Amino acid sequence: MVRLNHLTVRVRDWKRSRDWYVQNLGLVVEFEIADRKAAALKDDADVTLFVEGDHPDVRPSCALFFEVDDVEKTHRRLAARGVPFVATPQKLFWGYGAELDDPDGYRVGIWDATSMKEKGGG
Questions:
Q1: Are 1-58 and 60-122 the same fold in CATH?
Q2: Domain ranges in the chain?
Q3: What distance, in Å, lies between the first and last C-alpha atoms of the chain?
Q4: Which of 26, 27, 33, 97 is found 20 to 30 A from 68 (Cα to Cα)?
């Protein structure tokens, strides 16, 4: 068996990134290591995203995709709070979903299983 357990992304401000993922995507702070300037953020599938450091020259090198209950509702909720989107819910090269950037420019895709199946699964 192989299963992704955690992923670390380097960020400019670990506390800002921690708060962004908690407030916008509902991740939960599992623990923090203040002297490493890191926070462990857990999703509903028990996968942990570490946001680490205060790196002034972050160059995002991956995209993160999160399954949500309803991509349309999640988009409306975040857009109403002023969160900017790169792509509103639509058929994209990877399937049906929406895309936004986190505070450091990491591309974040959101999708749901029903919309993916009904509106274009890649």
A1: yes
A2: 1-58, 60-122
A3: 26
A4: 33
Residue range 1-58 forms a domain whose CATH class is alpha beta
Mapped onto helix, strand or coil, the DSSP state of residue 90 is strand
- Give me the tens of pLDDT residue by residue for the chain, a chain 122 residues long: 898 999 999 999 999 999 999 999 999 999 999 999 999 999 999 999 999 999 999 999 999 999 999 999 999 999 999 999 999 999 999 999 999 999 999 999 999 999 999 987 55
- Look at residue 41 and give its three-state secondary structure: strand
Q: What is the CATH number of domain 60-122?
A: 3.10.180.10
Q: Taking the CA of residue 81 as centre, how many other CA atoms within 13 Å lie in the half-sphere pointing to its CB?
A: 10
Strands (DSSP E) contained in 56-121 are: 63-67, 87-92, 95-101, 107-111
